[in-house]
């Protein structure tokens, strides 16, 4: 058997990897490295230490890279057939599991688990199997493999069968659904998901609340956790990276341009999100509208800087949501705008440097998701904001567990309550605001990505 083992001592598996490729007009491939907690976490170990990241080819560029044998050290991209990936990613992961954990269904008519769902589920199984097989092939004897997120819930169980010698972890970056909601899934599928995850030695969650919800599902549906441990690792923002990156020249440039758009002497309410249903962008805009309607003293004196970047545009419901965000922003500008004042500055083209510029200018950060695993924006803005910011934070974000005490907390469905919270936040005196922001920044950076990852690795290595 020994000859069939691979060389990697530490493996990470995720749908989206650290690099993506684009085919340029001249036919050359251009590699783009992504950011995010997992990227900096794994790079703290690196390929030299035998770390390998198994991820999926996601677009034509990635597939072309796999075909040409182009790649990076420490990354293995799996070229699963495009239709299988589409069913697994769009059909099951993003339209079913994401919806269940974020409780996004319009339940009078959704979900519908029919033959089409069963067909897509078979692709989800095949997709998970491709990952399990690649990990089994690459892992050294006794290696540690940490599988990421709802795209790959079946991998731990499949990998356990192929390679009982491995230490297997799984980390959920999403919330976990409460039992009654999780049971929307057909019984056999719910059970398969739980048993798949319980194939791991250890399951990581972002907050105690999500870990407890998972445990409750296991107790109700499969008789408990068996021998699997759970652990909570509240991923934090990377203070060093953010402080440095936010003072580079491109961010200064974006800041100057944003200042022009905002206008002299005005307060800013900043939000930066993927255009994601669970982020609750529309109710945020409606709350801002209500603030302007009920507190006319803020007119001309505040601007809502809202960045809503494209996400999951293969799904019609996301395309509709994007259009709705644009429509409501336009309506607020139409209703209240004046010759010299645009109440909402909405940008929809992804631009990280501009996001950091907005963070620097933020007086108030609006983070009002209906449900969110953590929400790193809540942790990042206080680190970067120049004058300190007041955080308006949904109690349904994982970040609430760590930041709730120093934030202005909202029920994300309560638009009037959110409008009032925006008023409260804008009215906090500068000294108090700076103090609160400092405490938020400290709490939000307590577990930076590299340590977050190492903590899990150590726990698995025992
Ligand atoms: C969430 C998920 C991640 C995912 C990210 C972006 O944070 O937990 O796994 O990568 O959203 O979504 P996308 O579908 O573009 O990968």
Automatic annotation (TrEMBL):
GO terms, molecular function: alpha,alpha-trehalose-phosphate synthase (UDP-forming) activity; trehalose-phosphatase activity
SUPFAM superfamilies: UDP-Glycosyltransferase/glycogen phosphorylase
One Gene Ontology cellular component annotation held by this UniProt entry: cytosol
Gene3D superfamilies from the UniProt entry: Glycogen Phosphorylase B
Span of the signal peptide: none
Top EC class for this record: transferase
GO biological process per UniProt: trehalose biosynthetic process
Bilayer-crossing regions: none
EC number: 2.4.1.15
Annotated InterPro entries: Glyco_trans_20
Superkingdom of source: Bacteria
Pfam family of the protein (one): Glyco_transf_20
Keyword field: Glycosyltransferase, Transferase
The keyword Signal is annotated on this UniProt entry: no
Family according to the record: Belongs to the glycosyltransferase 20 family.
Protein name (record): Trehalose-6-phosphate synthase
Species of origin: Streptomyces parvulus
